[in-house]
Specification:
It is built from 6 helices and 9 strands, in the order βαβαβαβαβαββαββ. The chain is α/β, with parallel strands linked by helices. The chain binds 5-O-phosphono-beta-D-ribofuranosylamine.
Length: about 210
């Protein structure tokens, strides 16, 4: 059987990219594409022999032109799945339709709570006792696509946004590779706008934190 192929989209640091590469997933990382030429994750990818490409959004006249170029760049690598890992651009409906059902993202909150930015500060401000991260399919509504898996962490009394972000990031680095491992084995599928896992035992195990 042909090995599945993924393309990873990044914009910056690339710590999730690193976690995915370090996990030695049973799929081919065909390329890492960034919209920013200075994204640190590009260096890491190149050092690991992964093809890298920059589609710099600042050089395009608008979102449509950028998304068309990004889509073409992605398609040259013939991926089965596009994995957004800290890719910080809003995508047009045309782009999302082009890759419908083939694009996933990790969001640093327990969706559907706290879509958008500054999730950690907002969770603290609202007095949340638990917070976390979500891997989901990408659809037209921002951070609204079908949820694949989540991981929760406690919010501790003295947390500031940075401390909470660091605790969540540890879980991101565990959850995203686990979801991709499962995807490689066809352990879940999109059905009627929801994600169905073939066997509940294949879910990424929940984090082992004391009761929150
Ligand atoms: C992560 O917190 C991810 O959930 C969010 O952006 C951040 C990217 O971090 N979408 P990194 O570039 O993977 O280190």
């Amino acid at each position: 059987m042909r090995m599945k192929r993924i393309v990873i989209l990044i914009s910056g640091r690339g710590s999730n990219l690193r976690a995915l590469v370090d996990a030695r997933l049973p799929c081919t990382v065909a390329a890492v594409i960034s919209n920013r030429p200075d994204a640190a994750g590009l260096v890491f990818a190149a050092q690991h022999g992964i093809a890298t490409q920059v589609v710099d959004h600042t050089t395009f006249s608008g979102r449509e032109a950028f998304d068309a170029a990004l889509g073409d760049a992605i398609e040259t690598h013939q991926p089965d799945l596009i994995v957004m890992a800290g890719f910080m651009r809003l995508l047009t409906a045309d782009f999302i339709r082009r890759f419908a059902g083939r694009m996933v993202n990790i969001h640093p909150a327990l969706l559907p709570a706290f879509t958008g930015l500054d999730t950690h500060a907002r969770a603290i401000e609202r007095g949340c006792r638990v917070h976390g991260c979500t891997v989901h399919y990408v659809t037209e509504g921002m951070d609204e696509g079908p949820i694949i898996a989540q991981a929760a962490v406690p919010v501790l009394p003295d947390d500031d946004a940075d401390a909470l972000a660091a605790r969540v990031l540890v879980e991101e680095h565990r959850l995203y590779p686990a979801v991709l491992q499962a995807w490689c084995k066809d352990a879940f599928a999109l059905e009627g706008g929801r994600v169905r896992w073939r066997d509940v035992l294949t879910w990424p195990a929940p984090a082992r934190y004391p009761a929150c």
